[in-house]
Amino acid sequence: MGYYIAPRFLDKLAVHITKNFLKLPGVRVPVILGIHGRKGEGKTFQCQLVFEKMGIEVTNISGGELESPDAGDPARLIRLRYRETAELIKVRGKMCVLMINDLDAGAGRFDEGTQYTVNTQLVNATLMNIADNPTDVQLPGSYDSTPLHRVPIIVTGNDFSTLYAPLIRDGRMEKFYWEPDRDDKVGIVKGIFEADGLSQKEVEQLVDTFVNQSIDFFSALRSRIYDEQIRNYIHQVGFEKVSLNVVNSTEGPPEFKKPDFRLSHLIESGNFLVGEQKRVENSHLVDDYNRLNRGRNSQSTTPPATPINQSSSNGATQEPKTNGFQKQEVSSPHLTLETQEQIRQLLSQGYKISIEHVDERRFRTGSWQSCVHSHIDAESDAISNLEATLAEYSGEYIRLVGIDPKAKRRVLETIIHRPHGKN
Questions:
Q1: Domain boundaries, position 237
Q2: Do 45 and 166 belong together in one domain?
């Protein structure tokens, strides 16, 4: 299988990496190159091809490594990998880079439901510090005055608008939006099907038939063409013997003849994949489930329409009958049912509650301020404090915070009020 490197991609990476290894007088070179774009367009794979072509060694970090139950671990990991890469440059005498895949998945904030943890703050601060001082990157608890070799950092992601704004500003991160044009797609797809005998014209027709599909669609399409032969093989040996024949066979792994790679067959299989995509897009089952759960919660939390102070025939006031072992729920006309249910769930799990507010100017920097002096562990106190906060800070953002007192960490951060908006 042949591989195609998009000229624009090769040019951008080569210039950025080379520039970081040169000493240009009076020129401030950004250490970080952020490659962003739609999912499945081959950002990471194109990077790997460029690295291989230029003979560059890579130290990889996944976006999934940017969170940990222990505060500070991801930031320390970034510093450690950076120092290791700098040492590789010194020892090997060749270009090396640090690459962080899916940075927005590990450090981005997509909505108010995304938890902004201490680790997220430290990861952002660490990358900013490295971008500002690329030759002075220290590990926590130690200091080495020897300057490090500058290491270019390549990060990939889909939506960099979810990242901390000071991190992606010009001077710290150079941005490159990768969206392959038709010529790029034709070149990459031709490389995918190079061993299958497709002509240039057939590749172009295939790309034009599925013009809105990303690069990974065509790779998945080629893989799917083998499904028919594998299915026949499974039926031939029997479901019970597949494991022995494939994993632990004395005859070696099975061999398959070349499948049918005619253009008509590829288009037929491609249409089937597109149909599966549309089923996923149109299902929206999670919306139905959430709507159903909200309905059940609202029914379970709505108090019965029982008169509280109804006078009897003899003039005495009758109190509502309650079970002595059942805790009476507190309700608020000013808070949504979802917010009240969140409060009850947090307290029932042994968590405590805090309330924070921030004005519109400081909202972008995440400079929240607490509205309570201590953590709340009673439902009535939480509701009354929230109502008072809503009245006092109606023109600001207000969020509900759930805190695990044993682990001393936040388990929930959710905005329940926005300026000039509804609760």
A1: 182-286
A2: yes
Interatomic CA distance for residues 133 and 90, integer angstroms: 18
**Closest C-alpha to 339, from 412, 420, 410:** 412
Q: Determine if the pTM surpasses 0.85.
A: no
Last residue of a domain, one of 262, 286, 310: 286
Do 37 and 173 have their domain in common? yes
Q: What is the pLDDT of residues 307-347, one digit of tens each?
A: 434 433 344 434 444 433 334 444 555 678 788 888 888 88
> Residue 76 belongs to a domain with what CATH number?
3.40.50.300
Q: Are residues 23 and 162 in the same domain?
A: yes
Element (H, E) at 397: strand 397-404
> Under a CB-based contact definition with an 8 Å cutoff, are residues 112 and 399 in contact?
yes
Residues paired with 376 in a beta bridge: 353
| Tokens 């590789």 -> residue | 88
Type of residue at 239: F
Q: Kindly tell me the burial class for residue 141, based on how many C-beta atoms sit within 10 Å of its own C-beta (0-12, 13-18, 19 or more).
A: exposed
Give every CB contact of residue 55 below 8 A, 6+ residues apart in sequence.
94, 95
For the stretch 60-99, pLDDT in tens is 999 989 988 888 899 999 999 999 999 999 999 999 999 9
Amino acid at 323: N
Angle at which helices 379-392 and 337-348 cross, to 10°? 140
Q: State the DSSP code for 245.
A: H
Q: How many domains does the chain have?
A: 3
Number of C-beta neighbours around residue 85 at 10 A: 22
Q: Are residues 28 and 127 in the same domain?
A: yes
Closest C-alpha among 86, 111, 75 to residue 31: 86
* Residue 55 sits in the same domain as residue 167: yes
327 located within any domain: no
Element housing 344 (H / E): helix 337-348
390 alpha-carbon distance from chain centroid: 31
